[in-house]
Design a protein that fits this description.
By secondary structure, the chain is α/β, with parallel strands linked by helices. The protein is built from seven helices and eight strands; from the N terminus they run βαβααβαβαββααββ. The strands form two sheets. Strands 1, 2, 3, 4, 5 and 6 form a six-stranded parallel beta sheet that branches.
Length: about 260
Amino acid sequence: MKVFIVHAHPERRSLNGALTDIAVDTLTGAGHEVRVSDLYAMRWKSTVDAADFGPAASDPLDTVRDSGRAYERGALTDDIRAEQEKLRWADTVILQFPLWWYTMPAILKGWVDRVFTYGFGYGVGEHSATRYGDRFGEGALQGRRAMLSLTVGGPASHYSDRGINGPIDDLLYPIQHGILYHPGMRVLPPFVLYRAGRLSSEAFADAAERWRKRLLTLEETEPVPYRTQNGGDYEIPAARLREGLEAPGRSGFALHVAE
């Protein structure tokens, strides 16, 4: 495998740093190639602005069209183009981050905002009465696998079906389905480490071993069975799931996961 890890934690000696180190050691030890983007170490700029698009930027700024023109002309900044090339190189992508305020850290969201430009991360394919672009199962990153590895401060019960914070699958849906699956990557079930600030040495050793096993079985792990947009399950161009396809009692985000 060619594995691209995007690491997003300000303290390299953190639990997230340890998980990234374990991933690099485990995967390279098994003969896989690994590249890491440590966003804080790179001092990644997390805001989109006209400077990202060079001479393709308009006045007033149109981030969609301008990013598309810059992508087509090769005018995106060097840091953006480097990250896009890493995504093209990889067959497996891992996002490593702590869950902060129910989502990814701002620097990682900024990585997505700047790297997933029009024509690369979205806005590709035919838009017609029968297709609404190449997305959700298709797209520029089709054929790759992606997974979230994250740490969470609270216990697992707080993120369960009746937990106060909501089910972890619901919290991660915007990232897994809306960011990773949107441009075509198949999404593997996440690796979630709960009570991150209170792990004993024994609990960490157990978690590290579970993480190693997940890493060594990435190629055999079945992805989350999200429905493909253009596969017939959705009305096009409304992009609404056809009536009667859901399991009894299923609603919300779970509608978009096939049986």
